[in-house]
Amino acid sequence: MTSPLVSRLFPLRLPAHPPAGPVTDGPPDADTDGSVDDEAMDVEAEIAARDGGEVFPTILIGPGSTPARQPRLRLRHLSEEEQDIAAAAVQHFADVMASKITDADSWISGEGYISAIPDRLREVLLPFSVSPMGTSSSRDNCPRQRPPRVTRTQREHRLDEALDDMQATQQAVPSDRRAVRKSRRRVGRIRASMAQLELRRRFAQDEAKCVSSILDGASAESAGVEHPDTCPIGREELHQHFVGTSSAPTAFDYDADCGQEFRDVLNGFPRTLLGDDCFSEAFSMDEVEDQLLRVTKTSSPGHDGVGYDVYSQFAPQLVPLLHTAYRFCWLHRMIPRLWKVGMVRLVHKKGDPLQPTNWRPICLQPAIYKLYSGLLARRLSCWLELNHRLPMAQKGVSRV
What we know:
There is one protein chain. The protein is an all-alpha fold. Among the domains are: 4-18 and 34-128, no CATH class; 153-218, no CATH class. 51% of the residues lie in helices and 3% in strands. It has helices at 4-9, 30-50, 80-103, 107-115, 117-125, 154-172, 177-205, 207-218, 235-246, 260-267, 285-294, 308-313, 315-332, 367-386, and strands at 343-348, 359-364. It has a two-stranded antiparallel ribbon. The two termini are 49 Å apart. It comes from Peronospora matthiolae. This is Reverse transcriptase.
């Protein structure tokens, strides 16, 4: 029996009939079946006693069973006292989950614990989110207020203050047009300043692309172009298009004649003498912490809704838990099946929205999985650089 939280977050569509059991030549041995059942019941009882009655099932992934996408977990601006309370709650959660993963005696039980980390973390931090669940009933008679925004830079903080001041002025003295106009002009000045700084950043990053976007926006043909939020093309047509563009035209054959030059280059490499520990030693806690510092905190999360910003805000509490989970995956050479689920979104590039070539697919994957894949990528890059397997033409994929 699954917990209500898991059932709500991951609704499973079970088959109409259970799978058939193995075919045997005769009736089963009653003594054998009884001993197997007793052993299974003992294992289940031991796990239930260890988990306090909670169940951490392994989610089956397939065409009829996929996790529902959760809204992004956005934490409100916490005071020092609230931050300490939230950190203590996350610390307790991390200690409990790390202990469960460490004590797991098989991949099946450990996979259930690791898969539940984002959802249990969401449950712990919901009281500190922008719109906590379960509090609407107690506030029915109170005027609803806009929750404070999550600010990341000083400019955004100034804009938030200006917007709050404008809203307060409009509600307090709506008849004072002068005060209302003054507050609106302040918001406009801050937004204009932020737009100018963003333009300077784009110009310094890619001068040609920045100038081209300015000229395209000023042209009569593209001035009124609007990018649709949803793709109007049918699912079957999109599937055929991207399968055709993303699939290899022919099956890969290592011994094909056209690959002789490639095989000669591989055979000409000297024997590797360095970096064997990159593929044998488990990840250290410093590696996990360093990888968390390298990520872009504003990146969109996957189906669990827990982004890099949440892991970074509570890094002192969550890094040991992540290290324990990643070490478990490394030792078993497997990852949870739930991590492999990605939500694909289509972003309109330009031109006719009815043409599949004018849409770019992006895959949103869980942040906890992307952190682990980043650790693997850095290990591989380290081995390639130590053994001089990267030419200068591939400088862009180096760790530097």
